[in-house]
Amino acid sequence: MILRTSPASPFGRKVKIAASVLGLSDRIEIVPADTSDPNDDLRRQNPVGKIPVLLTEDGTALYDSPVIVEFLDHVAGGGRLIPAGTGRFQVLTLQALADGLIDAAILQVYEVRYRPEERREATWVAYQAEKVTRALDHLEAKVGAIGDALDAGTIALACALGYLDFRFQGTWRASYPNLVAWLDGFTARVPAYGKTTPA
Amino acid sequence: MILRTSPASPFGRKVKIAASVLGLSDRIEIVPADTSDPNDDLRRQNPVGKIPVLLTEDGTALYDSPVIVEFLDHVAGGGRLIPAGTGRFQVLTLQALADGLIDAAILQVYEVRYRPEERREATWVAYQAEKVTRALDHLEAKVGAIGDALDAGTIALACALGYLDFRFQGTWRASYPNLVAWLDGFTARVPAYGKTTPA
């Protein structure tokens, strides 16, 4: 299998960690993708041009990251990162919340990347930042119940916090001690997290 | 169950159509949500403030729309809108492509809604519009193979095209005759599509 992603992508990081936890890393070749390059095959593999994309052994392109994580779980036998019974939808909702946090953070990064200063809109950036804050507030209160579960939801949560470390200088850490402690535990339990930290 | 959504939401429309196809509409009360209102309970139900959110009978909040559609499929017995075996990941990838098309279309709408004219960025809007065009080009070539399948992928595709009808005056129709014919067939087969057309 081939994974199209970039070292900085938090959604690609989710997939790399999932593959490692499932023992599938050896079966996946990472081929870097450049979302900004119109000539990159990425835009044929996924017409909306987002990463990550997984090319399966028969050449089928799968996306986006929740679909890829579920596919890898299926390849590994199923029910390991996404439980089949009770708890499935809570795990998937936690993943959606973490992915939504990342989306709101990315839109703040894109505000700078894709616009000259005079066309940036402070109310839009604040609107996205409030989404991140509300998600962190909610997760700070909830993370004790999450505990040391290792699944698609907690992998996404770790990658969301890692993205805030990477792009927002880890300023979240001052206000969310429970999440800091939880991420420390996750990092200790899941070596792939440290190995996929963007430079 | 309670569904928080708005009449204009394409992702909420997916859920409403899925519920209808699965025979679950009678078990779901729709409670309108206003994503722009800080006092709407929505922001407690889903901290990132997106719709739709499904409140299950025990009060658990589930999101986002792919998770809700899968949950409803599970409630209805499973394997009806998302096949369990072969084809599952193609269905989920088609859904992700249609959802990605919608996301790129929504960002163009938000450019107007959330910014004064002098802070709109034409290159950003064009970047999103190109995503929509590439997705339509890809789907136009592929839709013959999709045929009359009724699943999470084709429901999402119909809602994506419906969103372009709603917010972009259906200008896509002039260039994509296969998709127009496919949507006509879908509309005829799935009464809930017409019943959920935004005003």
From TrEMBL, chains A, B:
Give the Gene3D superfamilies listed for this entry: 1.20.1050.10, Glutaredoxin
Pfam families the record matches: GST_C_2 (PF13410), GST_N_2 (PF13409)
Q: Which residue numbers delimit the GST N-terminal domain?
A: 1-80
Source superkingdom: Bacteria
| Any one Gene Ontology BP term | glutathione metabolic process
**Which InterPro entries does the entry link to?**
Glutathione-S-Trfase_C_sf, Glutathione_S-Trfase_N, Thioredoxin-like_sf
Which GO molecular-function terms appear in the entry? glutathione transferase activity; maleylacetoacetate isomerase activity
Enumerate the PANTHER family for this protein.
Answer: MALEYLACETOACETATE ISOMERASE (PTHR42673)
Name it. Answer: Glutathione S-transferase
